[in-house]
Design a protein that fits this description.
This protein is 76% helix and 4% strand. The protein has helices spanning 2-12, 18-25, 30-43, 45-61, 70-118, 121-126, 129-171, 173-220, 222-227, 231-283, 289-330, 391-399; strands at residues 351-358, 368-375. It is elongated, with a radius of gyration of 31 Å. Helix 3 (30-43) crosses helix 7 (129-171) and helix 4 runs antiparallel to helix 11 (289-330). It is mainly alpha-helical.
């Protein structure tokens, strides 16, 4: 069953359609995610109820005896119950969310590993092992982070906006206009920063993959490097690569910081204006004093919700970039196909090369040129030469790679 689900994932995977692919990645886990959403709404209900409860208590206290003290106790009892149920519902939320995300991680990594075993040696020659490590580890982690941010940021943001608008429209429609201004502002900010965030994320990912590949190569070549006294040269190469990763990371952090600061300044301006308007309405007796606190709390919740959606945009971009990155493996058609090939009935041990030449696809210089060799069964022959002279290429030809 697990192998079948991995094959289905591979068949539906498309780096050119990252959002659709993101949905397919969670095939078979949607029941866990739906349960997680239900329990999230239940466990987070105290946060949404608090502004209404606080406003009700303030209105009771400032009513000068017009409302019974029993209303205060009733508000407190309701809030106490909502807080108590959080203990159970939060545990259930984490349980179902963890199941869905961890199963997705395992299945996606299994699909990547399975596909790498099927790809030709030519593919692996073109892709350095460090880059493949990065796709299996870092790219899958990016999708895991995106899923968690959706459940912990986007889902509550949507519900928060819906609850705040519903309550405010029913009580004071004019104040709801302040809330609605946050939506076009957020859309303008996303559009203004979209291309820069996407390009900086892609550049940073490429540099990290190159760094991972270079570190793997450096570790593998430490004995050779040490034997030739070339440690300084290798360190210079690594320092240069690490500097590029650092510079790309700084530029990415700066654009993300500017994105966040722009949204914060815009929303705080709206918040200040909303506070002045609701304060003036309470001063003139149009709304109770407690409602000022409620509207400000809702506005801050909406600002926080929209900010969460804006702040997750870089994570969303990174997740989409990771989907495209993993597509380089899962969508690669360069598969080693063994069906229909003859089975080796027996091995005698005689090896014969006659004027063999091999040139790799992206190279203009032959790796093996006019190579002739006869090795009889039982003989031992050593291939000796400097790095790049073609020893590995001859062995790959011998094995059939």
């Amino acid at each position: 069953m697990e192998t079948q689900s991995i094959q289905i994932l591979e068949s539906k995977y498309s780096g050119h359609r990252p959002l659709r692919t993101l949905l397919h990645v969670f095939d078979g886990e949607w029941h866990n995610l739906v349960y997680a959403m239900i329990f999230y709404v239940m466990k987070h209900s105290p946060a949404w109820a608090m502004p209404i409860i606080v406003a009700g208590i303030i209105n009771v206290v400032t009513s000068e005896g017009a409302r019974p003290i029993g209303d205060l106790y009733r508000y407190a009892t309701i809030m106490g119950f909502l807080i108590a149920q959080n203990l159970l519902t939060n545990t259930l939320f984490i349980r179902f969310l963890s199941r869905g995300i961890r199963n997705m991680e395992a299945r996606l990594r299994s699909a990547l590993v399975r596909k790498m075993q099927q790809l030709t040696i030519a593919f692996h020659n073109d892709f350095r092992s460090g880059k493949l490590h990065s796709k299996v580890l870092r790219d899958v982690e990016s999708l895991e982070m995106l899923a968690r941010q959706f459940m912990n940021a986007i889902l509550p943001a949507i519900i928060t906006i819906g609850i705040a608008l519903t309550v405010t429209v029913n009580k004071e429609p004019v104040i709801a206009l302040f809330y609605l201004f946050t939506v076009p502002v957020s859309a303008i900010l996303v559009q203004a920063f979209k291309k820069k965030v996407r390009s900086h994320n892609a550049e940073y990912r490429n540099e990290v993959e190159d760094m991972s590949a270079r570190v793997s190569e450096m570790i593998e070549m430490i004995p050779v490097t040490r034997a030739h006294g070339a440690e300084g040269m290798e360190l210079d190469k690594m320092h240069s690569q690490l500097k590029r990763v650092r510079d790309r990371g700084i530029r990415l952090d700066q654009i993300n910081a500017l994105f966040g600061a722009s949204s914060w300044a815009s929303f705080q301006s709206f918040h200040l204006l909303c506070l002045v308007v609701t304060g003036a309405m309470a001063y003139r007796g149009r709304i109770p004093v407690g409602d000022v606190v409620m509207y400000q709390s809702f506005f801050m919740m909406i600002v926080g919700a929209v900010s969460s959606i804006l702040n997750i945009y870089p994570i969303l971009t990174r997740g989409i970039e990771s989907i495209r990155s993993m597509g380089e493996i899962l969508e690669c058609p360069d598969i080693e196909e063994n069906r229909g090939k003859k089975h080796v009935a027996s091995v005698r041990g005689d090896i014969m090369f006659r004027n063999v030449e091999l040139t790799y696809e992206k190279s203009t210089k032959p790796a093996v040129c006019n190579f002739t060799l006869d090795v009889k069964a039982g003989e031992t022959v050593a291939l000796i030469g400097e790095s790049g002279s073609g020893k590995t290429s001859v062995m790959n030809l011998l094995v059939g790679f």
